[in-house]
Fold:
Amino acid sequence: MTSEFSALLKRLRREANLTQEALAERAGVGVRTIRGLETGERADPRVTTVRLLADALGLRPEERERLLSTAVLRTPGGEVPDAESPAEPPVPPAAASAPEPTASGPTRSPLHEVLADVADQVAQTVAARWRREEEQRQVHDPYPLPVRWRPVAEELTDHWANIRRLPPGSAPTPLELGGQLDAIVDVYRRIPSGRLVVLGRSGSGKTILAVRFALDHLKARGHADAVPVIFSVGSWDPTVITLRDWLAAQLRRDHPGLAAPGPGGTNLAEGLVETGRILPVLDGFDEIADGLRRPALEALNATTLPLLLTSRPAEYAAAVAETDVLTSAAAVELTDLTLDDLAAYLPRTARKARGRSATGWEPVLHALRERPRTQAGTNLAAVLTTPLMVTLARAVHSDAPDGDPAALLDTRHFGTPEELEDHLLDNFVTTAYRPRPGSGPLRAWDPERARHWLGYLAQHLNRLDTPDLEWWRLGYGMRRTTRTLVTALVIGLTIALVDGVVGTLFDSVAYQLLDGLVAGLLTGLLFGIAYWFMVAAKDAAVEPSVVRMRIRGGERRTGRNPLRRLMIGALCGLVFGVGYGFVRGVLNGAIAHAPLPFVLAGSIGDGVLYGLMFALAAGPALGLLTLFETPLDIRSALNPISLLRTNGRTVATQLLVWSPVFGVLVGFGSLAVVYPAAAVLGPVAWNLTAALKLGLISGLGGALGYAFSLTSWGQWTVFARIWLPLTGRLPWSVVAFLEDAYRRGVLRQAGAVYQFRHARLQHHLARGPRAPLRTSDPDGSPRGGPLK
Structure:
């Protein structure tokens, strides 16, 4: 039966003047697939396949949304309504609460309404997040620094006919794109293609412009408009993941609730991206690794997504030289701050001198204006041209009680612009961590220790080649073997402690010390092997959970299959039990000095018994957990710490459910396995006390071992709360330190992750403590380092 989707796909293919074979070749799917979709034989197309077809057909956003809508709307029985049928398509489960269409406008599909409502919630979260970030960075104190731009060279801009979406034969004229910060949205809306590149050197205000663009765009946003979302594009690897998939993954990270199932069998994040409800603001193209910028630009050109892209000029120009400009994109370049800008801004950031209205910035501004050709004037004129350096100069010499701006004129200490910039970067951390009487929530940290810890975090990010400080990956800058050994060590010690303490309820202390050491060694080894194959060998991270546990209530489920999880749990339990039982049998036989044949026979028998015990327990326990999982709320991850706490609560609830269930199943399961096995294997030394002991230790130890090795909260605990503080690389109270660094303006929040205030600061801190600038004056007299 021909469906609406079939008829629409056939019409769009013919309008594109493509045969079925040509479309199949372009989309990378089989000809039989396309033939089946057009005839209605394949009544349930996969969203991924529809996406490939839409890309191959070069559809406009509204055509893409209609094709996706007709593909995902299905009757409860799975049949597709006929194209000529007057019946309305049924509302998917996720759309049950969608508002009804009004008489004043055209009927809108359930898919449209569901995603429009979700987009509204994302818009509210994004607006609140970036308003808070602007306040935290004192952007409006006393007022935003001027950010202006001008058009760039023609070779970095596409043809104006493409930018203006003109038909062939038209005579295009350039658009007027000049402006300043408060006009960025107006300038963007003049561009018919909806694609803009913003170039600017390091610290020139690209990120501030991106934030202002997002906030101003959200102010004027209508219900049907796309939501501007800022993505730090430096972490994108275009050779591994497509742009759309990467955008969806970033949305799920920053808004875990978007991982919930959406209309059409996809998740909400993918639905928002695919239907054009997200306007990507891609910040930091220059932060993409050198060898990946060309494929990144080619991948951007393979899409028609409206977007705003920021980059330093040299890196973007190099990528353009290797391939092409960003298709249909206009481009502007940020300009330097002027002396008038400095004269208007800097004095308003400092306290007035006693008895007069002048401030400490007057001598500096006088030197810039009256003596611009001196060494001091030249150095300052070269440095104080970007918002980054001006804000650092303010932090070091205006906000600090003992800061003297005139020190910037000292050429004995700062002989070059580079030395002056290093002085500002060096002293920014020292100034940020200076003691502040009555500072409220700010803790007292030693500035040198704080710099050491921040330096480790900066080096960690450089090793991972990303600007995103993800709390669940804090240990991932270490080698994979080291991570595996540390995880196994922590689990082994934990299990040994649990076994030793709980076991004393049943056996002597001396016996339990030995039993605890054996159990800890074996369990640590087996969990270490599991961690290596499931996590470390793939060089992957254990991502934060996108579900929470709900014992009561009928909320929406996650779509995970309990039967599948039961089978996975049973298989893992079987493997673990066989290994644990065999090794334990070998050790027991060796302690009893039994002959080798008896040791092997007993070890194999123990492996079979323990394998059955743990398989029958782990499978049902894991399957039961799945029944209690429900998606996180869309607004659940307002910042990194809230995501950490949410995952901590989820893991704690999982342990409270899984540990007793698993313990009971192991204990009673052992009795159900041992007694029938005795009829085959002969007498087995087992009783109710042994079953109770195994159940208690297994329930506690198994739950903790799983949490430490295979949950993001557990990995955070192993590395950020134990190993890195123990080795002096981070403080013991890591959460307090990160939150305090954010409040001091050293870190910023970008969704569910932290970032350094600026990439320049990250790379500077990663270099470690700097040596003195010079050791002596030309006359041989000693000279100190940077001014403090």
In short: The longest strand covers residues 227-232. The chain has a mean pLDDT of 81. Residues 640-681 form the longest helix (42 residues). DSSP finds 28 helices and eleven strands in the chain.
